[in-house]
Amino acid sequence: MIRVLLADDQSLVRAGFRALLDAQPDIEVAGEAADGEEALRLVRERAPDVVLMDIRMPRLDGLAATRRITGDADLRDVKVVMLTTFELDEYVFEAIRCGASGFLVKDTEPDELVRAVRAVVDGDALLSPGVTRRLIAEFAARSKEPAAADALARLTEREREVMALVGIGLSNEEIARRLVVSPLTAKTHVSRAMVKLGARDRAQLVVLAYESGLVRPGWLG
C-alpha cells in the first residue's frame, strides 16, 4: 500500500483528496494536517510514502516543512509533492530545489492525482510531461550560471547522456526511444545517476542537470 499524508489548511480540499485516494486499492491516507507543524509531526510519527503538501499554511508554511523533511536523513524515503493554486507558482521552484519531488495544481483531474502519487513513489517521472516541461522551462529561465561540473565526473558517458535527456523533460520511455534501448535500461541508467549524485529523485536530477551546466536554458524542444 502507498501511504499518503495530506497537508492543507482547507478541510474541504483534504476531504476531497481523502475520498479519492482511499477509493484506490493500492493507496491509503495515513493522516491529515492543517498546518506545517502538524504535517512535520505526523510525517515523523507515521513515515508516509508521499506527502501532498500545500505551499501556503499557517504556523509553518509548506516550503519550510518540505525543507525540514528532505533535510532529515531519517525521512529520506518520504516524497513530497507540493500543492498549489497556480501551475507556475513562484514558490514551486524553490520547493524543487529543497527536495520536493514535484507539484500538482489543486484542481487537477482525479485520475492525474492518483497517477502522480503512484509515479512519484516509483521515482519514474516528475508528474505529467506537460507540467514537467513548463516547470523545466521556467527553472531554466531563472537558473544562475552553472556551478562546477566536478560531480558529473562520477558518471559514465551514457549516464551523463541520460541525465541530460532527463534534464530536458523526457520520460524513461522517450529516453529509451531516443537511445534505442529498452525502457528498463533507461530507468537503470537514471537510477544509477541518481545514486552516484545523491539525488533524492528525478526532480533533483533535473535541478542538478541545470546547475552543473549539463543542460542549458534554450535546449527544450
In a few lines, what is going on in this structure?
This protein has 221 residues and is α/β, with parallel strands linked by helices.
Q: What is the CATH domain class of the largest domain?
A: Alpha Beta
Number of strands: 5
Please provide the ordered H/E string of secondary-structure elements.
EHEHEHEHEHHHHHH
Average pLDDT works out at 84
Query: What's the domain count?
Result: 2
Oligomer: single chain
Strand content: 5-15%
Low-confidence stretches: none
Helix content: 40-55%
Here the CATH topology of the largest domain equals Rossmann fold
Strand order of the largest sheet: 2-1-3-4-5
Q: Could you tell me the radius of gyration in angstroms?
A: 17 Å
Could you say which overall geometry the principal axes of the C-alpha atoms support?
globular
Name the CATH architecture of the largest domain: 3-Layer(aba) Sandwich
Secondary-structure class: alpha/beta
Largest sheet: 5 strands, parallel
Number of helical stretches of at least 4 residues: 10
Pfam families: GerE (PF00196), Response_reg (PF00072)
Protein name: DNA-binding response regulator
InterPro entries: CheY-like_superfamily (IPR011006), NreC/VraR/RcsB-like_REC (IPR058245), Sig_transdc_resp-reg_C-effctor (IPR016032), Sig_transdc_resp-reg_receiver (IPR001789), Tscrpt_reg_LuxR_C (IPR000792), WalR-like (IPR039420)
GO biological process, one term: phosphorelay signal transduction system
Description of the molecule:
Keywords: DNA-binding, Phosphoprotein, Transcription, Transcription regulation. It holds the Pfam family GerE. One of its GO terms (molecular function) is DNA binding. This is DNA-binding response regulator. It comes from Streptomyces monashensis. With 221 residues, the protein is an alpha/beta fold. It has two domains: 134 residues, Rossmann fold; 68 residues, Winged helix-like DNA-binding domain superfamily/Winged helix DNA-binding domain (Arc Repressor Mutant, subunit A, Orthogonal Bundle), CATH 1.10.10.10. Helices cover 50% and strands 13% of the residues. It has a five-stranded parallel beta sheet with strand order 2-1-3-4-5, with helices on both faces. The longest helix is centred in the C-terminal third of the chain and has 15 residues. It is globular. The chain starts with a strand and ends in a 10-residue tail after the last helix. The relative contact order is 0.11.
